[in-house]
Amino acid sequence: MIQLIFDLYIYVIESLYQVLSVLIPMLLAVAFMTIIERKQLAAHQRRVGPTEVGAYGVLQPLRRSGI
């Protein structure tokens, strides 16, 4: 009887280890892909402010027009 309980305990522990060894890397991969996606989308939406275009923002209207 004790051996049966011990075998069941070992089986449960091994099963949990197998499931977690697949699940944790997948969750980490999804988390990092989400971070990378957000950083990439933020880089695409970066807007250039008036202090970064020409002296005193003089060239800002040209930048906004797409020239």
How would you describe this protein?
The chain is mainly alpha-helical and 67 residues long. It has two helices and no strands. It has one domain (2-65). The longest helix has 43 residues, at 2-44. It is rod-shaped and about 85 Å long. It starts with a helix and ends with a helix.
Keywords summarizing the entry:
rod-shaped, 67 residues, mainly alpha, 2 helices
What's the short story on this structure?
The chain is an all-alpha fold and 67 residues long. The protein contains 2 helices and no strands.
Helix content: over 70%
Oligomeric composition of the shown chains? single chain
Radius of gyration: 28 Å
Overall geometry comes to rod-shaped
Low-confidence runs of at least 5 consecutive residues: none
Alpha-beta classification: mainly alpha
Listing every helix as H and every strand as E from the N terminus to the C terminus, the arrangement reads HH
Strand runs, count: 0
Q: Strand count, sense and closure of the main sheet?
A: none
**How many separate helices?**
2
Mean pLDDT: 85
Measure the end-to-end span: 82 Å
> What count of structural domains?
1
Measured by DSSP, the beta-strand proportion falls in under 5%
